[in-house]
Amino acid sequence: MRARLGQEASTELLTTIRPPARSRAARHTRRSAPATTRRPGLLLAALLSGGVAAAGLGLHGAPAASAEATSVLEAQAALSTGDEVLEVMPRASVTVAEAQARLQEVAASRAARAEAEAAAAEAARPKFVLPVNGARLTSGYGSRWGTFHYGIDLAAPMRTPEYAAGDGVVLRAGPASGFGLAVYILHANGDVTVYGHMDSILVEPGEYVDAGQTIALLGNRGQSTGPHLHFEVHKGGEDGPRVNPVSWLAERGVQV
């Protein structure tokens, strides 16, 4: 009995140390098992990768884009021809005819405004002025030293500006007997004003002048005893009767 127990113990020990023999089919199945267990892992990775890609497409692809952005991209793609991109202009809100009509309307408005401003400036502009500002009346119209003085003398410092007494056209400008230098201006009513003894003349015959425009610089040329302007008025023309300049200016709102 002791021998049988020892044999059983030996058999149990050998079984523990050496695993039982397997058949060839079992061994083949055992060796092939790792390959079978690896396939589900590869499939899972592929599925995960596909899911991430699908999620990316859902976030950034056409289904997630707005309709407006999609339309813009499609329009750009449709208008692109190679390297050239066709220009897309914004939609017009008015017609060309309406725009031209607006331009004409603005031009007419500006012309009317300019005309009104010019008319206002013309209305405010003086039509007659004193020929010399700040001058002193040293001799009047009438008898003087045994002769008749047909104008008035306005004394002032040399080269003081002399002005056209009213709007008109320069008839004569240059040397004149007795005056040294003289200027003759024809006015709209036919009267002619005469300016003499100036140091220099600043206008030419045929030039249109406004009332108050500088026509000469005061001087002492010709038959003169000192710097002054000799001013005359010929009624109705250059050869018309010479009238009192003081009265003529007063009738036009200018006081000497």
Structure description:
InterPro entries: Cell_wall_metabolism_enzyme, Dup_hybrid_motif, M23ase_b-sheet_dom. This is Murein DD-endopeptidase MepM and murein hydrolase activator NlpD, contain LysM domain. GO terms for molecular function: metalloendopeptidase activity. It holds the Pfam family Peptidase_M23. Keywords: Hydrolase. There is one protein chain. With 256 residues, this protein is an alpha+beta fold. It has three domains: 88 residues, no CATH class; 33 residues; 115 residues, Glucose Permease (Domain IIA), CATH 2.70.70.10. It contains five helices and 15 strands. Strands 3, 6, 8, 9, 10, 12, 14 and 15 form an eight-stranded antiparallel beta sheet that branches. It has a three-stranded antiparallel beta sheet with strand order 7-13-11, with no helix packed on it. A two-stranded antiparallel sheet has the order 1-2. Strand 14 and strand 15 form a beta hairpin. The longest helix has 37 residues. The N terminus is likely disordered.
